[in-house]
Write a structure and sequence with these properties.
With about 400 residues, the protein is an alpha/beta fold. The chain contains 14 helices and 16 strands. The protein has helices at about 25-35, 75-80, 85-95, 110-115, 140-160, 170-175, 225-235, 255-265, 280-290, 305-315, 325-330, 340-355, 355-370, 375-390, and strands spanning about 5-10, 15, 20, 40-45, 55-60, 65-70, 100-105, 120-125, 165-170, 185, 210-215, 240-245, 270-275, 290-295, 320, 335. α1 (about 25-35) crosses α14 (about 375-390) and α10 (about 305-315) packs across α13 (about 355-370).
């Protein structure tokens, strides 16, 4: 069955002379999706000047078309401009689509779904805007405004979900929706390709042992707990360093706080921030040089970090917190600790450093699990379900 698919998310893209550029984590998904389509239309924002450097991936598929839906400005302006850009663009092009895939949560998801009617909509939900609002570094009145908007957005998203095929990458969200969303499928999101695997029997050959975190640089990711765990390990005589790879939130001073914490605990020379690295060889070299992968998220609304699949595919033992979908998806292939407990985090890391048999067992289990969570497998299954849904 030929498939003409639309796709919308809030991550921007840019048309250049030699192709369409977008961040690698989105670009890899788009190319995997395009492999199953005769036509794939991207309804995406144009980037702000400071975002252009992160559009590091050029779409490879010739069937992909980019339709700009306005600048990726601040949220209130984006909402207002939706009626000028997004809604008309989707409205005009909807007749050429068999279905519209909407990744969420996303500010314009309800409006874009409305503009696409009567084209069937498919949701891919990977988080919840309501999560973590109480922890935002904002005045109380502003947090309440954000909460009100997030509730309104969730109400609109739920209305769309009731009449859509809906994929979710969160066990908690799946449990919340299964009572009133008739076509609900639990899935895994990933950036991992079959060609990315790096197979080795063991790590931790010699000190200093390199711990790695990749992802967003934000307080809710438990990075201060990671720094404290490193300090505790050093006090115990362990020779460890922590490599941090990822991007900070705009206008966020968290990196400065992180450096202050490392300095105050005497491990400033052992906590190293490497900035943002594109998905692919630039990022994967850090996985290949690492000995353990650590993620200490505190958010109970964590979906499932794609970085865990990347770490497992690079033969890394994983230490993670028991939040979100992590305990449900790792199937015994990682060491799990409670969130907000750097002492337990340090204990789990120390145990792996000194237990070769446990490391090797985790590596083998992780590799097997990662092979079932590649783009080829997950996107292929998603497209098959979409086609069946359209046919029905």
């Amino acid at each position: 069955m030929a498939l003409r698919l639309g796709f919308h998310y809030h991550i921007p893209a840019l048309q250049k002379e030699d192709g369409i550029y977008t961040p690698g984590y989105q670009g890899r998904f788009v190319d995997s999706l395009a492999a199953h389509c005769d036509r794939l239309v991207l309804f995406l924002h144009t980037p702000q000047p400071e975002e252009v450097q992160r559009l590091d991936y050029r779409i490879q598929s010739p069937v992909v078309e980019l339709v700009p839906i306005g600048p990726h400005t601040r949220l209130p302006l984006r909402m207002l401009q939706a009626w000028r850009y997004a809604v008309p663009q989707v409205w005009v092009r909807r007749a050429g689509l068999d279905a519209l895939l909407l990744r969420g949560p996303s500010p314009l998801l309800p409006l874009v779904a409305w503009a696409a009617r009567p084209v069937p909509t498919v949701l891919l939900l990977v988080g919840d805007y309501l999560a973590g609002i109480d922890d935002l570094p904002q005045p109380g009145w502003r947090r309440e405004l954000i909460r009100f908007w997030a509730l309104w957005n969730r109400w609109g998203q739920d209305r769309v979900a009731r009449r859509s095929l809906t994929f979710v990458n969160s066990r908690k969200l799946y449990e919340e929706l299964k009572g009133f969303v008739p076509a609900l499928v639990e899935t895994r999101t990933t950036t991992l390709s079959e060609s990315d695997f790096f197979v080795r029997e063991d790590t931790c050959a010699a000190p200093p042992y390199r711990l790695l975190y990749t992802g967003r640089m934000a307080a809710e990711k438990g990075l201060l707990d990671l720094v404290e765990a490193v300090a505790l390990l050093v006090e115990q005589g362990e020779d460890v360093v922590l490599d941090l790879v990822g991007w900070p939130d705009r206008e966020d001073s968290f990196l400065e706080l992180l450096r202050e914490q490392a300095g105050a605990r005497g491990v400033a020379d052992r906590v190293r921030y490497h900035g943002y690295q594109p998905v692919g060889p630039e990022l994967f070299v850090f996985y290949r040089q690492a000995d353990l992968f650590v993620i200490a998220s505190r958010s109970c609304f964590e979906g499932f970090p794609r970085s865990i699949w990347e770490a497992m595919a690079h033969s890394l033992p994983v230490v993670a917190t028991e939040v979100g979908s992590i305990p449900y998806f790792v199937a015994g292939a990682a060491s799990l600790v409670p969130p907000g407990r750097p002492d337990r985090l340090a204990d789990a890391i120390s145990l792996l450093l000194h237990s070769p048999s446990q490391r090797r067992e985790q590596i083998q289990r992780g590799l097997a699990l990662a092979r079932t969570n590649t783009l080829e497998y997950r996107v292929g299954r998603m497209v098959s379900i979409i086609q069946e849904h359209i046919a029905v």
